[in-house]
User: Fold this.
Amino acid sequence: MKRLVIAVAVLALAGCGGEAVVPVGQEAHGHGASSAAPPVPGASARFNDADVMFVQMMVDHLQLGISLSQVGLAKATSQQAKDLAGAIDVTQREELTMLKSWLKLWDKPEGDGASLHASHGGQPLLDDKVINETKEKSGAEFDMNFLNLMTGHQGAGVEMALAEKKDGQNPEATAYAERVVTSRQGQIEQMLKIISGP
Amino acid sequence: MKLMRKAALLMAAVPAIVLITPVGSASAHGYVSSPASRSAQCARGDISVDLCGQAKYEPQSAEGVKGKKNCSGDNGAFAPLDNDSLPWKVTNTGQTLSLTWTFTARHATRDYEYFIGNTRVGYFSGNNQQPNNPTTHTINLGGFSGRQKLYAIWNISDTVNAFYSCIDLNISGGGGTTPPPTTTTTTTPPKPTTSTTTPPPAGGGTWAANTSYAVGQTVTYSGSTYRCRQAHTSLTGWEPPNVAALWEKI
Assistant:
């Protein structure tokens, strides 16, 4: 019976659901320390698989959003839409830099968007083809296309962030997920009010 | 021996379970954005989150098995969408109505159906392809008039499910004998300069959400002063300390 428990425990540790801890503090100061209790890892070094997946998927999601916002910035006729595109562009670049630094800290790859989508059952809303088709539109038709695409894209971001809030563990990543929920909801509110009138 | 067999079974089962557990699903969907459907009104903040529930966060996820005539797909978290007594905004329309769907993921589509009561007033095949994004349909309201609830249904081809959206309408020109009016569309094109936001006082003031800020304007937030770096309409989640791209601390 004892052997069974150990076997299961080892498997559980080796599986995907285990908590990974990078002992950042230990690397810097703790080598050779004989203290019985391991040093408490830095907050950002404490993460689980949900955190990693969220951040990897957000990197791809932010990049697509930046591509679309640049098209909006260049072609939107509504000043509100143009301003929003500009603000989404710069804020998401800032977020992207932050998330990439987390993956580096965690020693995790950025992953590639297509395989991430495929392995999580998604039919991505945005790809280069959709973005290029949008570029072909003009005037009010362009604005409607751009705003509906961006509304949907940011809505997908809210879903990813809600999953992270539920399953994630890293304090910075879950706090960021909360900001994604509120900021994207605010953007969606603004966009829907341009789409269907105040 | 029996124990060993159990152990072997468990050992085989554990990694499989770990592999099939959905760590976080981003399996998203769609809703009618124009005219503002009930879901869209929740996302727009027209109806409070207390009344809307989950539809505020995921207007695209009122999903249920095909064949229903309701607004939630019988998805419990979205039950408020079925509540006719909430203060839903009503769209005035003639007999012809254009509707636009916003998608958060593009499922292969069997078709779209539009119903008033049990009468199907619109049908569009999806050819089992991914939909164009966005997708706009123009339907004829079949002589219906007055206050009506339109069911907009997106039937997915690779699952048993559909996505449900309801639009509250006040239809003119129906009743069979009355000729349709000449102005028939309710789709509001984007208005270049319309703003529902409040311009801040020129001398700064305290940062507030839903305010239009121009480059160079200053605000205070939590005792610090910030200068706007990028024109935008502020929102919760874009507080100055969180978005250095929008606000420079001075």
Notes: Chain B is about 10% helix and 35% strand. The helical segments of chain B are 2-20, 38-44, 49-52.
